[in-house]
C-alpha cells in the first residue's frame, strides 16, 4: 500500500510534490493541473480555506463533466461536428428557431418522443440532426448516430450470424437513436422488417430521430410493402415533432453566391 509522508511545516516545493502525488493516486487530474493557479487566486482574493477547497473540487467536477460529454459525443459516432450556433436560420426560414431551441432542451427525449426532419438535400437536415443530438449528449443522454443503410446492413449481418437479438437490444438501450439519410435507397422487405424491429424495440421507451429527403408519401419507394411502410411511419410520428426543411438547397445557394462574387470580382 502506498502512503504519503505527513508532517507539519512542509516547504513549498515539498507541498507541491505531495499534492502532485496525492492527485495522481486519487485520480484528480484537474486539481493537479490547476492547483497552482487556483492557489494563487485564493491568496489574491483572500479566500477562506473552505472557499479554496470548494474552488478545487468544482474545478475537478467541471472538468469531469466536460470529459464525460466528450466521451458521449465520441461514442455517438457523429461523422462531423455541427452546432446550433453555426446553423444559418436566416438561410432557411422554414425552420422555426423557437421550435429548435425547445428541442435543444431535450424534454422530448425525456418523454421518449420521436423527431422527423424532412426535406430536400442541402436544406440543413443533417446539420440540425447532429447539432441537436450533440446537445443531447452534452446533457448526459446516450446517443447513437447511424446512416439508415448502414444500420440495415448491420442488422442483416447480425441476423446471418445469429446475433440479431443482441444487436437490436444494443440499439434499443441508447436514449436517442439518430437515423440519417432514410429514404435515399430502396430497402428489400427483409431489411425493412429488421429496421421495423429496432423501431418497435424503442417504441415509447426511447426516442428515435430521423432525417429523410422524402416526404412520408414517398416512403413507399424505400419501404415497398405498403402496410409495413405505414407501420414504420406510425412509429416515427406518434406524439412526435415533424420539421419540414423545404426544397431550397442552402449548399447550392451558397455555391451560386460564391460563384457570382468571383465573377463580379473578376
Instruction: Give the number of helices.
Output: 11
Gap from first CA to last CA: 75 Å
Which strand order does the major sheet show? 2-3-4-1-5
Helicity, as a percent range: 55-70%
Task: Report the portion of residues in β strands.
Answer: 5-15%
Largest sheet: 5 strands, parallel
Question: How many strand elements?
Answer: 5
- The whole-angstrom Rg is 25 Å
Order of helices and strands: HHHHHEHEHHEHEHEH
Structure, described:
The longest helix is centred in the first third of the chain and has 28 residues, at 49-76. This protein is of the alpha/beta class and 266 residues long. Strand 3, helix 9 and strand 4 form a beta-alpha-beta unit. The chain has helices at 12-26, 29-45, 49-76, 97-104, 107-110, 125-138, 148-160, 164-173, 189-202, 226-237, 250-265; strands at 115-119, 143-147, 176-182, 207-212, 241-246. Strands 2-3-4-1-5 form a five-stranded parallel β-sheet. It has eleven helices and five strands.
SSE layout:
Layout: H1 12-26, H2 29-45, H3 49-76, H4 97-104, H5 107-110, E1 115-119, H6 125-138, E2 143-147, H7 148-160, H8 164-173, E3 176-182, H9 189-202, E4 207-212, H10 226-237, E5 241-246, H11 250-265
Parallel strand pairs: 1-4, 1-5, 2-3, 3-4
Helix pairs in contact: 2-3, 7-8, 7-9, 8-9, 9-10
